[in-house]
Design goal:
Elements: H1 9-16, H2 21-52, H3 54-97
């Protein structure tokens, strides 16, 4: 360090001493922001984005698949049964009437 004698020596000593604003800024501003961003990232990334993203799409396709499968098994089978029964009755009635 330079040896300065005179009127600027006190001025330079004042600025060479550490005031530790960086540690104060770190404790009051930076660390709370880091902690908040960590938990916000956990909630947003693992919560909403995953629910509306890949997991939501897979659940939607599973729901649609189950709905179509249930509809196909129940309504379509009943519709087919009704067609067979009414077809059989139509053939039976037409043969009786002739």
């Amino acid at each position: 360090m330079f040896l300065i004698n005179g009127k600027f020596s006190n001025f330079l000593k004042f600025f060479y001493k550490g005031w530790f604003f960086d540690s104060l800024y770190n404790k009051l501003i930076a660390k709370p922001i880091f902690i908040f961003s960590y938990y916000a990232l956990k909630i947003i990334d693992k919560g909403y984005l995953e629910y509306f993203g890949p997991r939501g799409i897979s659940l939607l396709t599973l729901y649609c698949n189950n709905f179509i499968l249930t509809w196909h098994k129940t309504y379509l089978a009943r519709y087919l049964e009704a067609m067979i029964i009414f077809g059989f009755l139509l053939i039976l009635i037409s043969t009786i009437l002739q």
